[in-house]
Structure formats: structure tokens, C-alpha cells
Design brief:
With about 270 residues, the chain is α/β, with parallel strands linked by helices. Helix content is about 20%, strand content about 30%.
């Protein structure tokens, strides 16, 4: 089993346009952070987690030609607006792609990409559109995707709710500010945690800072934690040196391997 971090940056990405800070001008490739996405290898295929604007570049960089399902955490642009890049997958393989989205977000996804989900919109002969079938999920109700039981967890993200998940002993929490009691019960005892963490110090209204993310990992009992959704206020090498044992800075392209039963079929 493997989780590949495709993008580990915030909505601005790193480097930030027009910024000449030491992180944005760093020559360390780990300081280049695209918008957030990941790929989870499951028993029956690959689950794409979010579709950021750089999705095409992510797939090319990692040599990924095929996706088998999609998990949409929420509908902010940095997590969704690369959805059309899946068109080549459905066209080449002449099949539709199952995408899982929270019931409260489905209408928004369909509105933003009406040409995909409105069957009345047909591409002219010789052209194409993505063939994506939406399936609804809700917090706490397990769904089975590609041979894996996955339990959605709802995270407050300002006025929006983001949907992370537990898959076996993996917890994936992006774009959240806290972990409510219901989510704690689902996630407690996980082995590996991937969690958003912007920077050290000052709190943010919709995201964890690094201190809050570390404390959340301790509460959940995670053996190892990877921080993602990092800003240009943290230099990778310095962050790695300052983090406690069991906590690491994620970076674009990082592959996290699991024992055979770590994301087991549940």
C-alpha cells in the first residue's frame, strides 16, 4: 500500500507569484509546493484525493496514466478546479470514473462543472468531456471504494466543511481547523496521519498551525505524522529539524509506504 503526496502547498502554492522570500527562491525541490492532492493505492486501484489546478502536471511527474476513483474533500478551487484533467483518463479507457463527494457539496460540484454532469450537454463529434459519476458520502458512514472500507470524517474549515477520512490505520485530514468529537472517535488509534499545518505560531481561522497539528496527532495516538498544506513561511529543512520525533514535513512526490494490513480491506 502506498500514499503519494502529489501537492503539499496551500491555495497560493509555493513559490508564491511575485514573492522573493527565501522559501520561494529556495533551490531545495522540497520547498516547491503545488496545490493539495494525493494518490492512495488501494487493493483494487488508485484513489485520487482532490483535483487541484496542477493535476495534469502531477500525473505527468509521477508517471500516472490511470485513475480508478476520486475523493473530493471540499469545493475550494485549489482542491477541485483541475477536475477536467481527468478527461483524458475517461476518454482513453472509454469508461466513466466514480467520484465521491459529500452530500452537502454535490450541488456545488455539479454547478461548477455543469457541462460534465448535465447529460443534455453533449460534446460535438470529435471532441470529448470527462465522464464522471458522482456518489454521495456523509460523515461517519463507511463507504467501500476499490476494495477498501473508508470512513468519512467532517472537519470545520471556516464556513465550509471538509471531508477527510480513515482508511485502515491511515487518517487523512486536509483543510481543517479542529477535529470534532465524532471524528475523534473514528480516528483514534490510527498509525499514520496526514494533516494540514500552515506555519508555526499565529493561529489561522480555518487551518491548523503546526503546533495544533502536532497536538492533534498526539491526541489521536498516531505513530507517525506528515504535515501538508504548508505555506512559504516554513523552509523544509528547518521545519524537519524542529519537528518532534514521529512528525515529518511532507513534500511533493513523497511516497509513504504501508505494511500490507495498514490500509487493509476493513
Amino acid at each position: 500500500m502506498r500514499l503519494t503526496l502529489l501537492g503539499t502547498g496551500t491555495s497560493f502554492g509555493v513559490p508564491v507569484v511575485g514573492c522573493d522570500c527565501r522559501v520561494c527562491t529556495s533551490e531545495d525541490p522540497r520547498d516547491r509546493r503545488d496545490r493539495s492532492a494525493a494518490l492512495l493505492d488501494l487493493p483494487e486501484g488508485r484513489l485520487l484525493i482532490d483535483a487541484p489546478p496542477e493535476l495534469r502536471l502531477h500525473l505527468l511527474r509521477e508517471g500516472i496514466a490511470s485513475i480508478d476513483a476520486v475523493w473530493i474533500t471540499h469545493t475550494h478551487a485549489d482542491h477541485l478546479h483541475g477536475l477536467d484533467d481527468l478527461r483524458i483518463v475517461t476518454q482513453r479507457e472509454a469508461r466513466s470514473l466514480d467520484a465521491w463527494v459529500a452530500d452537502i457539496h454535490r450541488e456545488d460540484v455539479e454547478a461548477r462543472f455543469s457541462y460534465i454532469f448535465d447529460d443534455r450537454v453533449q460534446p460535438p463529434p470529435g471532441t470529448s468531456k470527462p465522464k464522471i459519476v458522482l456518489h454521495e458520502l456523509s460523515a461517519g458512514r463507511p463507504v467501500r471504494i476499490l476494495g477498501q472500507e473508508i470512513i468519512p470524517v467532517a472537519l470545520p474549515h471556516g464556513p465550509v466543511t471538509s471531508f477527510g477520512f480513515r482508511a485502515g490505520t491511515l487518517g487523512y485530514l486536509t483543510d481543517g481547523k479542529s477535529v470534532p468529537d465524532a471524528a475523534l472517535e473514528v480516528l483514534r488509534g490510527i498509525d499514520t496521519l496526514v494533516i494540514n499545518a500552515l506555519w508555526w505560531g499565529s493561529p489561522h481561522p480555518t487551518h491548523f498551525n503546526i503546533e495544533e497539528a502536532i497536538e492533534t496527532a498526539r491526541t489521536l495516538g498516531a505513530r507517525r505524522t506528515f504535515l501538508v498544506h504548508l505555506t512559504h513561511r516554513v523552509l523544509h529543512a528547518e521545519l524537519e529539524a524542529d519537528l518532534p520525533e514521529g512528525v515529518a514535513a511532507g513534500y511533493d512526490g513523497l511516497a509513504i509506504d504501508f505494511p500490507p494490513d495498514d490500509t487493509g480491506s476493513g
